[in-house]
Amino acid sequence: MIKQFRGIIPAMLTVFDEKGLLDWAGNQRLIDFLISNGVHGIFALGTSGEFSNLNLEERKQFAEFIVKYINKRVPVLIGTGSTNTREACEFSRYAQEVGADAVTVVVPYYIPLAERELYNHYAQVAGAVDIPVLIYNYPALTGQNMPVSLIARLAKDFPNIIGIKATIDSVSYLRELVYEVKKINPNFAVFTGLEDHLLNLLALGGDGAMTAITNFAPQLVVGEYNSYLEGNYEKSKQFAKQLGVLSRIYNTGSAMIAMTKEACRLRGIDINSSVRLPLLPVGPKEVDQIRQLFKEARL
Fold first, then answer.
1. Residue among 129, 82, 126, 132 at smallest CA distance from 107
2. Active-site residue, 47 included
3. Per-residue pLDDT tens digits for 272-294
4. Per the residue annotation, which of 14, 47, 167, 192 is the catalytic one?
5. What is d(CA 131, CA 148) in angstroms, rounded to the nearest whole number?
C-alpha cells in the first residue's frame, strides 16, 4: 500500500556541533520542536540538511537515527539523491531497510542529462525500493529541470513514484504538475519548496510544502495550511504575508542555510548554528538582517 503524503513537511536542518560533527542531541531538540508545532512529516537530508556536505556513511547514520528517534510520530522522508545512480539506489535501499516512509531523490546535477537518462535514473531508483519515491526538482541548484511530461511518464510507469517537491519559482509549472500528473494518479503529491507559492498551490489542488523556513517558523507555515483547509482564507492570507517577508532569507545565496540555523537559535530553539565547510557561519551583519526580517514579519 503506497502512502499518500500531504501537508507541511519541513526540509529539516542538520545540526552540527562546534567541531562540525553531527550533534545528535541538538537534532533531537529540533525534531521535537517541529513535531510539537504540528508538522505533517519530516524531510531529512535535503538541501537545507546539507546533504552535499556529508559523506554517504554519515547520511546513512543520520537516516537510521532520525527514523528511530521519530519512532512513527510523523512520516519520515529521507533525501537519497546522488549524481551517481548506483549510490542513489544503494542509499534508497538502506533508507527502506531502516524504516523510512519514503525517499526523496534530487535531480542529478553537474553533468547535463538527456530526458532518457533522467528517466532511467528514476526508473532505477524506483525499481530498487518498494517504499514511495518523490522527485526533488530544484533547477536553480542542479542546473537541470524536470519537464512535467517526463514526471507524468514516470508517475504512469512506476506506481511507487508518488510525488514531487518542486523548488521552482513558477506558478505555471506547479499548475501543470497538478493538472497533468494528477490525471494519471490523483494521489500524486505536489509540494512546493517555496512558501511564496503555498497558497497558489493549494488553490490549484496541490498538497503542501517542504520548506526551510518551517524550521524556525512552523507555526506560520502550518497555520497557513490549516487555515486554508478550514476555509479561513483571510487568516491563511495573513500567514502568507508574514512568510512573504521571511522568504527574503532565500535571497542570501549560500548564506541561507547558516541564516536559517541562526534564525532557529534566535527563535529560542536550543541548537548550534554551525554549518559544514565550504559553508561559513553568519556574522553580525547577517544576524541583524534576520532580526530585521523578524521585526517586519511581526514574528
1. 82
2. yes
3. 999 999 999 999 999 999 999 99
4. 47
5. 22
Widest pairwise Cα distance in the chain: 51
Tell me what the mean pLDDT of segment 212-237 comes to.
98
Which is nearest to 15 in space by CA: 83, 84, 70, 66? Answer: 66
110 as an active site residue: the answer is: yes
CA distance 45 to 67: 12
Active-site pick, 104, 138, 165, 250: 165
The pTM score is 0.96
Catalytic residue among 122, 136, 225, 250: 136
Q: Is 136 a catalytic residue?
A: yes
Question: Which residue in 19, 72, 110, 285 is the catalytic one?
Answer: 110
198 close to 225: Cβ distance less than 8 angstroms: yes
H helix or E strand, kind and range, residue 257: helix 255-266
Q: Would you call 237 a catalytic residue per the annotation?
A: no
Q: Which three cell numbers stand for residue 34?
A: 517541529
Closest CA to 212 of 50, 24, 95: 50
Q: Are 93 and 126 in contact (CB under 8 A)?
A: no
